[in-house]
Specification:
Largest sheet: 7 strands, mixed
Mean pLDDT: 91
Structural class: alpha+beta
Number of helices: 9
Bound molecules: (3R)-3-hydroxy-3-methyl-5-(phosphonooxy)pentanoic acid
Number of domains: 2
CATH architecture of the largest domain: 2-Layer Sandwich
CATH topology of the largest domain: Ribosomal Protein S5, domain 2
Helix content: 40-55%
Length: 318
């Protein structure tokens, strides 16, 4: 178990993440493996004299809190929760967010946003919050965004290192095992161009599981065992094995019906251009996919671009 309190961070940063293995099954108490996408969200607070403003230029978001009580912007709920919990609702401020991660793309943008804002408030108002408190508050925000989150997004957004994660039962704490990679992990992340709400995908899996609990139980157990083998491959840098596990996991995510046409096309393009493994990452139904591409990240990115998809290189160290 990692010593989570003794890590240092830039104060206003929230990390994005990609889930390598275990999404959806993690909601049902199985393990998941995730790595950070560094510096995804950076927030800054300045004093204002006319209320509370939120600006996120790259998402086209510009909101003043409590200006349209009948039709509040979705962002307002999150920011209000944070400010209430920190006793800052009577302050006037401008919250400016530089988001380098797409929204609703399966990369943990909502958790990164919450962590970035909490850290910026912590710094500006000198609140002395530790990482555990930042993580707990970001988890509360994730409940607003996702309904029934496992807690993996806010954990990676807060701590910013690769983890094996398993949510705690009832009042038990989650298992958060810090991992050391056997070598830098060469990923490509591609965007389907289809925005998809994790909330909806999680609800969809929940409804399907209710109808066929025994089948879903077995799929989740299978994903769990793949994830645990994936942890070993990640730590030894065995990319052949990790790629194979990602491909098998994608088959199971298909069984959960959380893929989509565009993701399937990207997966085929990546595999045909030499990716060792390729799969949905995060909630699915759109959003992003990941491919494991040692030595051929640029080739795969170019092939995806030619097929009409945006893609970027994400190499995860340590
Ligand atoms: O879509 P994302 O990046 O927020 O990832 C969601 C991962 C799920 O396992 C589907 C849900 C969860 O809370 O763990």
């Amino acid at each position: 178990m990692a010593d989570l309190e003794n890590t240092t961070h830039d104060f206003s940063v929230g990390h994005g993440k990609v889930i390598l293995l275990g999404e959806h099954a993690v909601v049902y108490g199985r393990h998941a493996l995730a790595v950070p996408v560094r510096l995804a969200v950076k927030a800054n607070i300045t004093d204002s004299d006319d209320g509370i403003h939120i600006y996120i230029p790259s998402w086209g978001t510009q909101v003043q809190l409590q200006q349209s009580p009948d039709n509040p912007h979705p962002m307002e709920e999150t920011v209000t929760l944070i400010l209430e919990q920190l006793g800052l609702m009577d302050q006037q401020m401008k919250i400016e967010v530089n988001a380098n991660v797409n929204r609703a793309a399966g990369m943990g943008s909502s958790a990164a946003l919450a962590v970035g804002i909490v850290r910026a408030l912590n710094q500006h108002y000198q609140l002395n919050l530790n990482d555990h408190r930042v993580n707990t508050l970001a988890f509360e925000c994730e409940k607003l965004a996702h309904g029934n989150p496992s807690g993996i997004d806010n954990t990676v957004a807060t701590y910013g290192y690769p983890i094996l994660f398993k949510k705690g039962k009832k009042n038990e704490p989650a298992l958060i095992e810090k991992l050391t990679l056997g070598a830098p992990l060469p990923l490509v992340v591609g965007y389907s161009g289809v925005e998809s709400l994790t909330l909806k995908m999680v609800a969809r899996v929940a409804a399907a599981r209710k109808k066929n609990p025994a089948i879903y139980q077995q799929i989740f157990d299978f994903i769990d065992s793949i994830t645990l083998q994936g942890r070993d491959a990640l730590q030894t840098g065995d990319w052949q094995q990790l790629g194979e596990l990602m491909n098998v996991c994608q088959g199971l995510l298909n069984a959960l019906q959380v893929s989509c046409w565009e993701i399937e096309e990207m997966i085929q393009v990546a595999r045909q251009n030499g990716a060792l493994g390729a799969k949905v990452t995060g909630g699915g139904g759109g959003g992003a996919f990941i491919a494991l591409c040692p030595g051929n990240q640029q080739t795969v990115i170019e092939a995806l671009n030619e097929a009409g998809y945006q893609a970027m290189e994400v190499t995860v160290n340590g």
